[in-house]
Specification:
Layout lengths: L9 H29 L2 H19 L35
Helix pairs in contact: 1-2
Length: about 90
């Protein structure tokens, strides 16, 4: 019914991790500076929280940006089970 992709490739996961670290670090530094300027630690926490929410929106869903390098899986091999014949088990030793 719906063709919603639910995966990221390995390079996409690496990009998402880099983006989230960058966004949270940037918002943390800006929040710390702004909180120190106005002497309100709560403003630092709010800005850091906004950065976390933004990073979550950008990096958690599997956007097409994170699916550009799919893995090329090997095709499965057809392994046939050994042929079973009913006569082999019924052979009598002479």
């Amino acid at each position: 019914m719906f063709n919603i992709q639910t995966h990221m490739d390995y390079e996409g996961q690496h990009k998402a991790e880099k983006f989230s670290r960058f966004i949270i670090t940037l918002f943390g530094i800006v929040g710390l500076i702004w909180g120190a300027i106005i002497q309100q630690f709560s403003q630092t926490v709010y800005i850091l929280g906004a950065g976390f929410i933004l990073a979550s929106i950008i990096t958690i869903p599997p956007w097409p940006l994170y699916r550009r390098h799919p893995l090329n899986w090997q095709k499965p091999r057809n392994i046939e089970p050994p042929a079973s014949s009913g006569d082999e088990g019924k052979k009598k030793k002479k």
